[in-house]
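The instructor's notes for this session suggest beginning with a concrete chain rather than abstract definitions. Hand out the sequence below and ask the class to guess, before any prediction is shown, which regions might be ordered.
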Amino acid sequence: MSTIKLFCLGLVCCLFGGCESLGFYRQAALGQLDLLQRSKPIRTVLADPATSPQLRTRLQRIQLMLQFAEDELQLRVADRYQRYVTLGRDYVVWNVFAAPPLDMRSEQWCYPLVGCAPYRGYFNEADARALAAHYQENGFDTYVGGVSAYSTLGWFDDPLLSSFVFYREPALANLLFHELAHSEVWLKGDVAFNESFASFVGLQGARAWLAESPEGSRQERYARWRLGQAEWARFKTFALAAKADLANLYQQQSGTVGERLRQRDELRDHWQGCYSANLSLLGNGRFDALMGDQLNNALLLSLSTYEDWVGAFAQMFAEVSGDWSDFYAQVAALATLPAPRRLEQMQALRQRGLLQEQSAQRTDHQNSEQVQCQPFADHILN
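After discussion, reveal the predicted structure:
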């Protein structure tokens, strides 16, 4: 049945995508088929004497996580993650982001069934790099990011992959619940909505999973992971401030292209310098690669793809008193609204969440760690 689905999906993609997209859809279909053919049932892997004790223990742990997802998070697992694939590489796919050099606008690629997205994914890294090189030759900023897992939205029974099964337990739970959430609610063509919803489910689900355990060590690992997540959130807030500053510059139409590129480079230098000055608050070098030569429009746009609305979904979850069934029903209802009305409601939810968060911070006196970097675009333009 899966092979028939794959053939039909590939045929539909080719018919809708046109001849110029045939190569892309061919590699996508073949990549998915390769995963299906190489996957082995979990029970077979567990019964194999050659399976390492570490992998056996981890696969058994994952089965408990999946049961928790069904029982406590009310996510539909069905036959997903009941097979295992040894990839032999760190990532399953590589996503390509591209953006004009003087416009904070991501290139869009549209697909049958799922809608448009600000990235294009390849099972072969060389293919992703080749597409990025093509865009670079045409003057675009590009960023290529490896991905450890993805969801087929119920088209296939997604397998467990060697690219993520040995993640630390909090991160693994987060990833599994995130990917399962994609099959719960999916809004065609709205990547920010879909990824933010799944990101919230992953984070909240991981918190609930670890809270169930009486093991102190798991709680400690979760606390360390959350510290890392908070560090990432602080860096991302910093990076998105740089993005907004650059977008402000790009909205100005004065000067030649050469002058505007010079202003852009000066502005990037400003934010890279600010990053270095606040290194102790921004990961102590953890994000140096992102703030080096890779700092461009495509990278900054990729950072805003996955978590724009997490705060809105967190507020919605709080307003239904943590009832997962009510939460999914409200998210599904939100997905049916016209885009302007949905945006209005999401903004209202996020604003209520921010107000409550600010109130809690004032109460707990947690405002001490703030990265101080002033927007610089206005200085360049004066």
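Then share the key points. Residues 6-20, 377-382 have pLDDT under 50 and may be disordered. Residues 1-38 form one domain.
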